[in-house]
């Protein structure tokens, strides 16, 4: 992780992976193919990595933005909305995992309701990512200081049980 550079780049990389997860969920909600790689990556991300990603934003990025942004940035309402989304995304991920675990166990086709759960989660997550990528990350790149980014990276590594590494501003 530390080799990737800025923690904002790491968050952006998670966003890229989440867009891929949304595409997989869309495919599975159509006609499940049970492609083992996609299914396993999606289950693994939702089970282990999504909560760390959300913690990166909730425990570090959002508080740092609240501290560093100017009043004219009007960031509070956006951050409040994104935090509310995060809580529902964690619940939605649990529902998706139940469905994906069933697919993994070679259960029969998905029900209409299960397909709707997968599609709904993907749609909500995509809208959330658009807001974060278009507004939040550019604002963070403009407002956060090197010390903020260094601290954020250290926390991100700690959350994942990874050793610290050299920080590269970027």
Plain-language structure description:
With 170 residues, the protein is mainly α. The chain has one domain: Four Helix Bundle (Hemerythrin (Met), subunit A), CATH 1.20.120.520. Helix content is 78%, strand content 0%. It has 5 helices and no strands. Helix 1 (7-30) packs across helix 2 and helix 2 packs antiparallel against helix 3. Residues 166-170 have low confidence and may be disordered.
List the helices and strands and how they pair.
Blueprint lengths: L6 H24 L5 H33 L7 H29 L7 H32 L2 H14 L11
Helix pairs in contact: 1-2, 1-4, 2-3, 2-5, 3-4
Query: Under the CATH scheme, which architecture would be assigned?
Result: Up-down Bundle
CATH homologous superfamily classification: nmb1532 protein domain like
- What is the typical, i.e. mean, pLDDT? 89
Strand segment tally: 0
- In the CATH scheme, the class would be Mainly Alpha
Broad structural category:
mainly alpha
Low-pLDDT segments: 166-170
Radius of gyration: 17 Å
Summary, kept brief:
78% of the residues lie in helices and 0% in strands.
């Amino acid at each position: 992780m530390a080799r990737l550079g800025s923690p904002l780049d790491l968050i952006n990389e998670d966003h890229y992976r989440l867009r891929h997860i949304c595409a997989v969920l869309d495919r599975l909600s159509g006609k499940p193919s049970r492609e083992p790689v996609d299914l396993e990556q999606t289950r693994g991300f939702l089970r282990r990595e999504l909560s760390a990603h959300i913690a990166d934003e909730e425990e570090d990025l959002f508080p740092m933005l609240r501290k560093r942004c100017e009043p004219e940035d009007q960031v509070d309402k956006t951050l409040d909305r994104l935090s509310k989304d995060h809580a529902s995304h964690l619940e939605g991920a649990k529902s998706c995992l139940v469905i994906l675990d069933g697919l993994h166990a070679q259960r029969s086709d998905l029900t209409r309701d299960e397909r709707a759960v997968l599609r709904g989660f993907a749609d909500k997550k995509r809208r959330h990512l658009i807001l974060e990528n278009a507004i939040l990350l550019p604002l963070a790149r403009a407002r956060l200081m090197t010390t903020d980014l260094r601290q954020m990276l250290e926390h991100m590594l700690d959350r994942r049980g990874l050793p610290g590494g050299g920080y590269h501003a970027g």
